[in-house]
Amino acid sequence: MSDELQQFSMGTWVVGLAVVTAFIGLFVGIASGRKAMTATSPRQRYLWLAWGAVSIGGIGAWLPHYIAMVGFEVAGSTLRYDAVWIVVSFAVPVLAAGVALLIVSPPPSKHRRPTTSVEISRLAAAAVILGVGLAGMHLAIVSSLVIQGSVSFDPVLTGVAAVIGLIIGAAIMWSISILDSRALRLVASLVVAAALVAMHYTGVFGLSVTVDPEAPRPDGLEVFSILLPVFVLGMLAVTIPITALLMAPDRVAAELELEADMLAAESLAAESRGRELELR
């Protein structure tokens, strides 16, 4: 990282906020992914898939990266963000998360019941797609930077950040398919959240800038004009799947109780028919 760049101009509290935000998005996204895998109706499945994709790709990955950019400054230059690249940087991880979740949660059929068991080939493909999406998100965020001069990046540190992204993708998909315990998913979400923020700083520490004082002031958006509305909307949006997740256990219990009652009724009917046959 060149001397003109400052990562923590707002203080190190930004790192903590980024980790907490990533943790919330990842935990909800992992839980939503598991619900999608066990959903019995197409409507429920696609709702959980959508919530999972937005929670993982948008709130868990994209939003913490821009939160971490709050403290990013370039000495001698105004810093702005290109709106087109911002949209791209959001769309890439959300779409990648959506495709990855589709791969690990194929629709139920006559020959396949809803289950969290995933073939290793599906798990690997989903992990790669999500990891590539996270790496693409980082590159898009870097590309959104506009200064009075030019921005370049170290290919080695960028490559390390991409590898971290692949590991994160594998960890998220593994957590969705393997971790039955809510406590374990909490721990996994916290670890992956820290890794996501580490991925961001690894890539950003590889940046270098060349400032041209005579260059015109750049056009674009300020970081707070992006972050404040998106953060508020993101936290409001994540309450929807959280509410659904809190209600889901009661609904599942009710469905199981109904199924048990139906089986008991069928058993009594069969027993009654058997007695009638014996009397004849």
Number of domains: 2
Helix percent band: over 70%
Number of beta-strand segments: 6
Oligomer: single chain
Helix run count:
8
Helix-strand string: EHHEEHHEEHHEHH
Question: Topology of this protein?
Answer:
Blueprint: E1 5-6, H1 13-38, H2 42-68, E2 73-74, E3 80-81, H3 83-104, H4 120-143, E4 145-146, E5 149-153, H5 155-178, H6 182-204, E6 207-211, H7 223-237, H8 239-279
Antiparallel strand pairs: 1-2, 3-4, 5-6
Outline of this structure?
By secondary structure, the protein is mainly alpha-helical. It is 72% helix and 6% strand. Helix 5 runs antiparallel to helix 6.
Question: How would you portray this structure in words?
Answer:
The protein has 280 residues and is mainly alpha-helical. It has 2 domains: 5-237, no CATH class; 248-280. Helix content is 72%, strand content 6%. It has helices spanning 13-38, 42-68, 83-104, 120-143, 155-178, 182-204, 223-237, 239-279; strands at 5-6, 73-74, 80-81, 145-146, 149-153, 207-211. The strands form 3 sheets. It has a two-stranded antiparallel ribbon with strand order 1-2. Helix 3 packs antiparallel against helix 4 (120-143) and helix 5 (155-178) runs antiparallel to helix 6. The longest helix has 41 residues, at 239-279. The chain starts with a strand and ends with a helix.
Features of the shown structure:
single chain, 280 residues, mainly alpha, 2 domains, two-stranded antiparallel ribbon, 8 helices, elongated
